Amino acid sequence: MSTVAFKDESSQSEHAPVALWICRLADVLLAAVGLVLTLPLLIAACLAIRIESRGPAVFRQRRLGHHKRPFTLHKLRTMHVQADADVHRAYVQQLINGDEQAHGDGEGCNLYKLAADDRVTRVGRFLRKTSLDELPQLQDVLRGHMSLVGPRPVIPYEAELYPSSYDRRFDVKPGITGLWQVSGRNERTYREMVALDIAWVERRSVALYFSILARTPAVLLRRRGVA
């Protein structure tokens, strides 16, 4: 498998454009195929969401992408409409401040999911546990806002709490899966998650890109999810 490295601020590799092109091509092809293959699942999930609770089946949220450019991220809605965002904001602040008591949701799902969150619907809990709620992000990959592999897309209020050393996460496009997600996601602290995201920025290669993609299905089968 290719080990072509990406262009970095400290490296002017002549192979960088080739690596970027290869991974962008893979993003487009795999995301397109993924959308076609999962269309029945998406339709069934949307119907289940609408039957259980009022409101749109797809949730849209502003996130920060490459170089902190804002974009609209798409997910299947897992919460009741008009859920209080301040609850999650306070939780994320605890995580960034290193409060280990705030870590995880207790269900093997996600560092960012609150335990016993009554804002989440019954269908939403299943979608989160299986990571099916992330499927609409494949269209964000096709639009060029995201890659299949990269750091988790950051909410603007989250970035406002960042120390300057965390900003390297924005040197690349955010991803659906990434080094953190396949490296013991639920056992990691927020600081460790950021360190793994920055490690991806520094170590990016075509080989690592495909390695992370290849390891992701096993993570999903263990219900550890991808972001």
What is the fold's blueprint, element by element?
Layout: H1 16-52, E1 58-64, E2 70-76, H2 85-96, H3 122-130, H4 137-142, E3 147-149, H5 156-159, E4 175-177, H6 190-203, H7 206-221
Parallel strand pairs: 3-4
Antiparallel strand pairs: 1-2
Helix pairs in contact: 1-3
Task: Give your account of this protein's structure.
The protein has one domain. The longest helix has 37 residues, at 16-52. The chain is 43% helix and 9% strand. Mean pLDDT is 84; it is low at 7-15 and 103-109. With 227 residues, the protein is mostly helical.
In short:
The protein has a two-stranded antiparallel sheet. The chain has seven helices and four strands; from the N terminus they run αββαααβαβαα. The protein has 227 residues and is mostly helical.
